[in-house]
């Protein structure tokens, strides 16, 4: 059996009404980013083991940012789906969950 624990830190506020600065300092946020940021940790690990160069990592980051920006632009161009589509084709293979249609009737049980 494997157990995974995910420990994350939210750098940004919850909403516009929550500036995030009333219960933590800028120093705390900066410190966590420098010491515990998962992306920065893996970046340092990759560089220290010569698995990629700084330039290669920058190129990957640019490529990923472009892919995300393109996906966001495409999503904004498409119409918002109808609420009847909310539960259409929702499933997770192998987790024993049920797939529901828009009518909330079980369409399939996946094992």
Layout of SSEs?
Blueprint: H1 26-36, H2 38-48, H3 54-77, E1 98-100, E2 106-109
Antiparallel strand pairs: 1-2
Task: Characterise the protein shown here.
This protein is mostly helical and 111 residues long. It is 41% helix and 6% strand. The chain is built from 3 helices and 2 strands. The protein has a two-stranded antiparallel sheet with strand order 1-2. β1 (98-100) and β2 form a beta hairpin. It starts with 25 loop residues before the first helix and ends with a strand.
Key attributes of the depicted protein:
extended; 2 strands; mainly alpha; 111 residues; 3 helices
Gyration radius from CA atoms, angstroms: 21 Å
**Estimated share of beta-strand residues:** 5-15%
How helix-rich are the residues, as a percent range? 40-55%
Shape: extended
Number of helices: 3
Could you give the order of strands across the largest sheet? 1-2
| Largest beta-sheet characterization | 2 strands, antiparallel
Termini separation: 19 Å
Class from secondary-structure proportions = mainly alpha
Mean pLDDT: 80
Tell how many strands the DSSP assignment holds: 2
Uncertain segments:
none
Order of helices and strands: HHHEE
């Amino acid at each position: 059996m494997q157990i995974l624990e995910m420990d994350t830190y939210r750098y940004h506020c919850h909403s516009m009404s929550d500036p995030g600065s009333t219960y933590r300092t800028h120093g705390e946020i900066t410190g966590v980013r420098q010491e515990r940021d998962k992306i920065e940790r893996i970046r340092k690990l990759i560089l220290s083991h010569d698995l990629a160069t700084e330039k290669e990592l920058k190129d990957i980051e640019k490529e990923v940012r472009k892919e995300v920006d393109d996906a966001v632009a495409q999503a904004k161009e498409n119409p918002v789906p109808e609420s009847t589509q909310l539960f259409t084709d929702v499933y997770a293979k192998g987790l024993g969950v049920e797939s529901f249609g828009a009518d909330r009737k079980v369409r399939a049980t996946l094992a």
